[in-house]
Design goal:
The complex is a heterodimer of chains A (620) and B (86). Chain A is of the alpha/beta class and 620 residues long. Chain A has helices at 28-36, 81-91, 112-123, 136-141, 148-155, 171-179, 193-204, 213-222, 227-245, 247-268, 273-290, 293-308, 312-325, 333-338, 343-348, 356-365, 375-385, 397-423, 444-478, 495-507, 514-520, 529-537, 547-558, 561-573, 578-588, 591-619; strands spanning 16-22, 40-44, 51-58, 64-69, 102-108, 129-134, 145-146, 159-161, 205-206, 390-391, 395-396, 434-435. In chain A, 43% of the residues are buried. By secondary structure, chain B is mainly beta. Chain B contains 2 helices and 6 strands, in the order E-E-H-E-E-E-H-E. Chain B has a 6-stranded antiparallel beta sheet with strand order 1-6-2-3-4-5. In chain B, a hairpin with a 2-residue loop joins strand 3 and strand 4. Classes of the chains: A alpha/beta (620), B mainly beta (86). Strand 12 of chain A pairs antiparallel with strand 5 (64-68) of chain B.
Chain lengths: 620, 86
């Protein structure tokens, strides 16, 4: 049966545009993944920071179906930007967005009371519509019986069953859409949606008592006032252990690969500016970003597993009260957790915080979480200046200092959030109303698609910005070339060198010498670049694998301890990351917020480094 | 037994919603509670309390579980439902 099917006249027609609409946690995204596989495009809706996901598949008839995955909504009376977009798209009122021809309303078969109410709201729009009973496997397991024919008759629209997490689980939906002829639902929608939902459940659905027994048992442990927080702490500990321990071999591998590529390209080309640009600019620059991919993927793997399993909202539940006291919200937990890998995805994750003030405060404190790019800098300075000594017969002094730097970042975030809460108190109520979805086993397919999406976003956006800036900074530190017979390292004569000398005027009070100031300039692109920049300044080869090892004895001989401590504290606060500032600007759509964030971080960094430098000098 | 608000309901006690009190005519939170299934006549049960100050409250309503802050839970008036106990 391998005959080539010739496309019929219908098949070459315009693609059919359908949209998936439904409550949060109805399995809509799993169904979207099932339908479209990896043929997905993720972007933003024009003018708003709401994620727009579109994909496509080819129906058995050969017709191309374009699928839009609308943001989850509890109601078409919108309470958040997400819900407003969903409403506007369904009504065809969103500028720049064509109205979908068919609305595919997805409901979780185990959560019909909530989801059918929303389906009735969608029906009232009068658009061509299909109802999808998703997660039929889970419903069957719990003994939920749904009379599909009866429900279809009562609703006046086709009703199909799917199991989005199973291969071929969307078969019935694909067939139905392919047959075409989907029309607006018959019959009116009564005004009291809740009463109508109850009536539908009475006539078409049988639910055995005690369907929540399994979740009750898990929640007795997970939400327990004592065991719950202990379990959460243990999970976080495991996660950080994994991010730092498991990622190390992969990062070393990437590092070595980049170094080899650089050496190989370097050997193929004659010496000159072009080689320098390729090897020291493009390859080293891209490499300094790529090396963080394993940590970010491991962190997101944990976050995705916790999210898909239904645990993350419970973590937000446990932490909500404490975070409210600090001026945040339980919903801030997930973005701040991501910020330990990188503030960029962390700030993007603040989209799930509905209240604008809570979201803004979370965005502003996210850069204070110690991201993985600070680690190379911390490692260099701690290795060079903090003696390897055991404290109280148990703790390694170097490890303690590293831990203290993490804690300093977290405590500072708490203080900053608390101050902003005082300053921007509005007296209005900030809603939580967070759904704690049923527990479920995460599917491998959805996990890998989620990870791929994260990796793509990271490489495209951050990589693009960092690469551009690295090349720019390479140019600044390479031109103008040193005059003939120059005795100092080439960087001294470059624009970067001049900038460094100029900056020394500002930074001398906090103990920075001109070499550090030069390193801060390329360190703006990505914090870890400061290490290789220092190596360049001290006339070492920046592309050498062991730059940090050679550098440590040099700087420990030339700098005082107060300078080193001051620089460590500087890196806890300083807005030394253009990608973070760019993402703040994009997510808040406000240059003012970006400058506010950069300004307050700079002030904190300068103040804290000043105090550290002078206190340390007084004791030294 | 008299009515109480949802925040005062003991963990695990089966109850029924009597009323959802809106605060003012344009109470977005009150309206959303209705959309989430908090409507008179529905069965509710508290399944957990936050570790600090009994906040938030984890509530089962219909087939769904929600975390509500104290001020949200206080809008919902309930009566303990002995018919559902045991």
């Amino acid at each position: 049966m391998n005959a080539v099917v010739r496309p019929t006249a219908e098949a070459v027609a315009e693609p059919l545009r359908i949209a998936l609409v439904g409550n949060p946690n109805c399995g809509k995204t799993a169904l979207f993944n099932r339908l479209t596989g990896s043929r997905q495009k993720v972007a933003n809706y024009a003018g708003v920071t709401v994620e727009r996901k579109e994909g496509r598949y080819t129906a058995p008839s050969g017709r191309v179906i374009r699928v839009l995955d609308l943001p989850g909504a509890y109601s078409l009376q919108p309470k958040s930007p997400d819900e407003a977009v969903t409403r506007a798209v369904c009504l065809g009122e969103l500028p720049g967005e064509t109205q979908p021809e068919v609305l595919v309303c997805v409901v979780d078969a185990t959560n019909l009371r909530l989801h059918l109410r929303f389906a009735l709201e969608v029906k009232a729009l009068g658009r061509p519509m299909v109802l999808v009973l998703n997660m039929m496997d889970a419903a069957a397991k719990r003994g939920v019986r749904i009379d599909r024919a009866c429900l279809a008759a009562e609703l006046g629209m086709p009703v199909v069953e799917t199991v989005a997490v199973q291969r071929d689980g969307a078969h019935a939906l694909v067939e139905l859409i392919d047959q075409g002829r989907i029309t607006p639902a018959r019959g009116d929608v009564p005004a009291d949606l809740h009463a109508e939902t109850s009536r539908l459940l009475r006539v078409a659905v049988q639910v055995p008592p005690a369907v929540t027994r399994r979740d009750d048992a898990i929640d007795r442990v997970v939400l327990h006032p004592v065991i719950g927080p202990v379990l959460l702490t243990a999970l976080l500990f495991l996660m950080f252990q994994a991010v730092f321990a498991w990622a190390a071999p992969l990062m070393d591998g990437i590092d070595a690969g980049i170094a080899q590529l650089g050496a190989w390209v370097g050997a193929q080309m004659p010496d000159g500016p072009l080689r320098s640009l390729l090897v020291e600019g493009v390859i080293a620059g891209a490499g300094s970003v790529l090396v963080f991919l394993p940590q970010i993927l491991i962190l997101f793997f944990f976050i995705l597993v916790l999210e898909e399993s239904g645990y993350l909202p419970r973590a937000a539940f446990l932490l909500d009260r404490a975070m409210v006291a600090a001026g945040l919200s339980g919903r801030s937990f997930i973005p701040l957790l991501s910020s330990f890998a990188c503030a960029v995805p962390g700030i993007m994750a603040t989209r799930s915080i509905q209240h604008p003030r809570d979201r803004l405060v979370t965005i502003l404190v996210a850069p204070l979480m110690t991201c993985s790019a600070r680690l190379p800098v911390y490692a260099l300075l701690i290795g060079a200046f903090i003696p390897e000594r055991t404290i109280a017969g148990l703790f390694n002094l170097q490890g303690l200092v590293l831990f203290a730097l993490y804690v300093l970042g977290i405590l500072s975030a708490v203080v900053v959030a608390w101050v902003m809460k005082r300053y921007k108190a509005t007296g209005e109520e900030h809603p939580l109303m967070l759904e704690l979805p049923a527990y479920r086993l995460p599917s491998l397919r959805d996990l890998s698609l989620g990870l791929m999406e994260r990796a793509k976003i990271f490489l495209n956006r951050v990589g693009g910005i960092i690469l551009t800036l690295t090349v720019l900074l390479w140019a600044l530190s390479s031109f103008p070339a040193p005059p003939a017979g120059a005795t100092q390292p080439a960087i001294d004569y470059s624009f970067a060198g001049m900038i460094g000398r100029g900056l020394e005027l500002i930074f001398a009070p906090i103990g920075f010498n001109w070499q550090i100031c030069i390193a801060l300039v390329p360190g703006m692109a990505a914090r870890e670049v400061a290490v290789s920049a220092l190596a360049t300044v001290y006339a070492l080869s920046a592309s050498a694998d062991n730059a940090a090892e050679q550098l440590a004895p040099l700087i420990s001989a030339q700098w005082g301890l107060p300078t080193a401590l001051s620089l460590l504290v500087w890196f806890v606060y300083a807005p030394q990351c253009i990608s973070t500032l760019a993402v703040i600007r994009r997510e808040t759509n406000s240059l003012r917020t970006m400058w506010l964030s950069a300004g307050y971080l700079f002030a904190l960094a300068y103040g804290a480094a000043f105090i550290t430098f002078h206190v340390a000098r007084a004791f030294a | 037994m008299g009515t109480m608000n949802l925040h005062e309901l003991p963990v695990g006690a089966p109850a029924r919603i009597v009323e959802v009190r809106h605060r003012g005519p344009q109470d977005a939170i009150g309206q959303r509670l209705g959309e989430l299934g908090f409507v008179p006549g529905e069965a509710v049960r508290v399944v957990g309390l936050g570790p600090l100050g009994r906040e938030p409250v984890a509530v089962q309503v219909g087939f769904t579980r929600f975390a509500l802050r104290r001020s949200e839970a206080e809008r919902v008036q309930v009566v303990v439902d002995p018919a559902e106990a045991g």
